[in-house]
Specification:
heterodimer; A: mainly alpha; 2 domains; globular; B: alpha/beta; D-Maltodextrin-Binding Protein, domain 2
Chain lengths: 306, 448
């Protein structure tokens, strides 16, 4: 208590500092942020603006003609765009909720006072996040190879018929979902864990005094407490999933027959395979609008109400 | 001895690569006075980077010491970018106005038209460096392939014919005389026999199209019927009887259980060669070198022939593709870059060394005079492998218009093939859909 009151008496010294401010001093903070702002403008703002401009052109490699909204009209009529959007939507609706539920369960378990070797186990679950995207994509492609993969070999030992991972449309989607789950669950669990550890212990104590069991404590204390990070992880996972590229690129190449084609892959193919940069930019902007809308919706339903 | 085959080779390659003005029966042709071979470039200076892939990159690296002796002012760095990664990398460089591109670029005929047409200035015009003096050193048709509106964008390297590599020992066990197979109908019968007797599947296809090049067999079957995705005017020719026939053969092979799934593409295919899980690799000239390198212990077990015809009495020879060395339009050392391309591609000794090393077949005419192309190959059971393909080059071959929209068309075709192989879809239906989709995406017309 005494420490706090002493602190409360400190402001005069602080005020003395700010009074020393000079015109030069008002420039200084801008100088400090200038490099970051310049880099942001050069590598983010400029490409974003240029990409929109480009989306209004019919491009054929380096040849460009202004075409107004033609690329966007073409997008609406393009069956492959809708296939890619549908695939991304399925992964979003199935994989993301499962992964986040898993991450939450994992976080609660990792937070348990009963658990030993906590640091080691947490590290174990977070490690996949450190693995390079391409490296783990390749790893999954090798493990899930229908003929020579370890997974089918192990299933074979258990008497299960080989699963056509990567060669059947549905299984390929599941394979990509599995890879995503392996990679990102630990990452989300760590975010939940950080929040769990910040939750005030007295809420639990109070609930316990009121006779709440483990489930009720989770339902009425833990879940509301996790709400802000649930929004965070949900929005991040949504954005990440909509931009999904590396895993299907490495594991399936978008196949078979476009069953794992994502908007990211389709954008890339149009830009860098077909030299159609204007159309690729239009896909990028459609993607940005979808991400924006979903973000707003999620904030509306999960965000803090004023 | 060398003169006759060479002349025929010239005539027929002209057909192969679309030298429209060149007649197949025109006596001597422009090659009557071949230019002096070998680089005559000035004492160019500079450091150059060469982009290629796997085998060809290794072969160019091996030529570098000799090149340094001949051109002490130039330092060469040959980089193995990998295939297909190299196409994305070149595209990115071109889209960035030539930033970061290698000076010498190794480009396949399937991508060359797109780079030339869609990125004006992306590839240097090689005439100022004297490329024209080599015009007649290659098959004249090849020169048409690398030229557009009077400009020369690359020097030809490979001229690949369709081949049919097979495990002679396995077929012998099954009691099948492979050399006697005349059509793909007979191939299917032979495949069934082979599978019954040895348990080995006939051939492999990347069924889910996990890599871009999973339509090689389909394309070859088209080219054997004088057909492709596009005709010479750039119309889409996938909704045609030829295309349906080609895809139907693939479906029948698959329905008979003769097609192994090579999901994973290249690596899986190499593994299948090593383990002997399929008996046939229906691949072009250069693939012989790959087999030899991948499975040295299978020496004597392999043989090669030209592919059987699609229909009775049909063609057995097709120039399926070619590759070329181009110089980046923005390169600061274009002259030095050209000197290197010239050194690799216009000296018979370079091309013979490359053929001996990796079995890569040159478009350079004078190289075929070397005995290397006429020697029995120990790996291929004492066959004169080089002559098998030289025989193919001598026959009239179909002109393939890859067009600038090839990558988009290829993707749609491989998807259609996947539906047939994995879901048992009807070839005629998927090809009609594919043709329509390509039309929707490219604005080209479908020929029906």
């Amino acid at each position: 208590m005494t420490v706090l009151t002493q602190r409360a008496g400190a402001p005069p010294a602080k005020r003395a500092l700010t009074r020393r401010g000079r015109p030069a001093g008002t420039i200084a903070p801008y100088l400090f942020v200038a490099p970051a702002l310049l880099l942001f403008a050069a590598f983010k703002l400029y490409p974003i603006a240029w990409s929109f401009w480009l989306s209004l052109f019919r491009t054929d490699g380096a040849l460009q003609t202004f075409a107004g909204a033609a690329n966007y009209r073409r997008l609406v009529a393009d069956p492959l765009f809708w296939t890619a959007l549908g695939n991304t939507g399925i992964i979003l609706l199935v994989q993301v909720p499962l992964m986040l539920a898993l991450a939450m369960g994992l976080a609660v378990a990792l937070n348990s006072p009963l658990l030993r070797f906590k640091g080691f186990i947490r590290l174990g679950f977070f490690m996949p996040m450190v693995t390079g995207l391409v490296a783990y994509g390749l790893l999954f492609a090798i493990l899930l190879n229908p003929q020579s993969g370890l997974v089918n070999w192990a299933l074979g030992l258990a008497g299960v018929d080989p699963v056509p991972w990567l060669t059947d449309g549905l299984w390929a989607k599941i394979a990509v979902g599995l890879a995503l789950t392996w990679h990102y669950t630990g990452y989300n669990a760590v975010i939940y864990l950080a929040r769990l550890q910040a939750l005030p212990k007295d809420h639990y104590d109070a609930a316990a005094v009121d006779g709440a069991g483990a489930w009720h404590r989770f339902r009425h204390v833990t879940l509301p407490g996790l709400r802000p990070v649930m929004l965070l992880t949900l929005v991040m996972s949504t954005i990440g999933t909509l931009q999904l590229f590396d895993e299907p690129y490495v594991m399936t190449g978008g196949g078979p027959d476009n069953n794992t084609m994502t908007l990211g892959l389709y954008l890339y193919a149009n830009g860098f395979r077909y030299f159609d940069f204007g159309y690729a930019s239009a896909i990028a902007y459609a993607l940005a609008v979808i991400i924006g809308i979903l973000g707003v919706v999620q904030f509306k339903f999960l965000g803090d109400k004023p | 001895m060398a003169n006759l085959p060479r002349r025929r080779f010239l005539q027929l390659s002209a057909l192969a690569a679309g030298g429209a003005a060149l007649s197949a029966c025109g006596g001597e042709g422009p090659a009557a006075t071949p230019a002096a071979v070998g680089p005559t470039g000035a004492a160019a200076k500079g450091d150059i980077t060469v982009w290629s892939w796997q085998g060809p990159a290794a072969m160019m690296k091996a030529l570098v010491p000799d090149f340094h002796k001949a051109f002490p002012g130039i330092r060469v760095d040959v980089q193995d970018i990998g295939n297909p990664a190299i196409w994305d990398k070149i595209t990115a460089g071109m889209a960035a106005g030539g930033q970061g591109l290698g000076d010498v670029l190794h480009i396949g005929v399937d991508y060359l038209p797109a780079y030339i047409e869609k990125f004006p200035g992306g590839l240097a015009d090689l005439r100022p460096f004297g490329a024209d003096r080599h015009r007649d050193s290659f098959a004249p048709g090849m020169w048409e392939t690398v030229s557009r509106e009077g400009k020369v964008y690359a020097l030809p390297w490979e001229a690949n014919s369709a081949g049919f590599y097979y495990r002679a020992d396995l077929f012998e066990k099954a009691g099948v005389d492979v050399e006697a197979l005349r059509t793909w109908d007979e191939v299917i019968e032979a495949g069934i026999k082979l599978k019954e007797k040895t348990g080995v599947q006939l051939l492999g296809i990347d069924k889910p199209a996990s890599q871009a090049d999973s339509a090689n067999l389909f394309q070859m079957l088209l080219q054997l019927q004088d057909s492709f995705y596009f005709d010479m005017q750039g119309n889409i020719t996938l909704d045609t009887p030829q295309a349906v026939t080609a895809l139907t053969i693939i479906k029948r092979l698959n329905d008979a259980g003769l097609v192994a799934d090579m999901a994973g593409g290249w690596n899986t295919m190499i593994t299948s060669i090593k383990s002997g899980s399929v008996a046939v690799q229906s691949m072009p000239t250069w693939f012989g070198g790959i087999i030899e390198e991948s499975a040295p212990d299978q020496k004597g077990k392999w043989k090669v022939r030209l592919p059987p015809a699609v229909t009775e009495g049909g063609k057995v020879a097709a120039t399926v593709n070619s590759t070329h060395l181009a110089v980046a339009g923005t390169s600061k050392v274009r002259e030095a870059a050209f000197a290197f391309a010239e050194f690799v591609l216009t000296r018979p000794e370079s091309q013979v060394a490359i053929y001996k090393g990796k079995g890569i077949a040159p478009a350079l005419m004078s190289a075929y005079d070397d005995p290397a192309f006429h020697e029995p190959s120990a790996f291929f059971g004492g066959q004169k492998k080089g002559e098998v393909f030289l025989e193919a080059l001598k026959q009239p071959s179909y002109v393939t218009n890859y067009s600038a929209d090839y990558p988009r068309a290829l993707k749609i075709v491989t998807d259609a093939q996947s539906r047939v192989l994995l879901k048992g879809a009807d070839p005629a239906t998927v090809l009609k859909e594919a043709a329509d989709l390509i039309a929707q995406q490219t604005g080209r017309k479908v020929l029906r």
